[in-house]
């Protein structure tokens, strides 16, 4: 029996307006068949912690910033074949993965439950314009941190502890939560938010991390890109619905933003704005899926950032 030809899809281009530029089109044409994404991770923070334990004064300070769970979990090994497969199925038009079983996506629920990052709070938007350089190399930050670490004692004043904590968080921002494809730069626009450590839990860092990852996946899924960035551990876990019993067993910082988990809201990270498209994945929240409205997609939205703005 003759096997009918396989249609690569999509059957209709009404929704997926970027199909001609999408990575899947290149794969169907015989390109990128053996290409996996290259590791774009910056391990300065993990190497610093590996070579020396954080001083107890810093360990006691970090939980108040909402970021200590990242350090508790530690460095995760990346499965680049899996990450490549997921990015190939990511659609910038809908901010969802298009799978044989339907659409799915990474949500604010995943970010808070797994990593304890707050998802309900002020957006960490760009407060003021910077003059001069907008990025800083992480290697000098780590070197300065090593010098300071040798000077910290149990009697160090709070301002010294806070200064050290800011440097640890700067390494985390540039190397773990918001890495870019440079492999050695952190955005200096985060410094404004690190000025007052006591204010950090009031920001929606989970939404910022997710919005930044969405933007990086939108870029990586287009054309023949080979670089992946963002908080990629969110791409490699076995997902299943979170039961009420599981949610009840979590520490408070992993569930306090529950009211926001299924909300359809903008995800803001400095000058990046992406949409949290929960209306397309209601089954992930135990609800019946409705017919969603067509997304409002800007063809060049994923190209907009502080490096290259497209008008």
TrEMBL record:
Annotated protein name in UniProt: Serine/threonine-protein phosphatase 7 long form homolog
Pfam hit, one: PMD
InterPro entries: AminoTfrase-like_pln_mobile (IPR019557), MAIN-like (IPR044824)
One of the GO BP terms on file: meristem maintenance
PANTHER family: PROTEIN MAIN-LIKE 2 (PTHR46033), PROTEIN MAINTENANCE OF MERISTEMS-LIKE (PTHR46033:SF8)
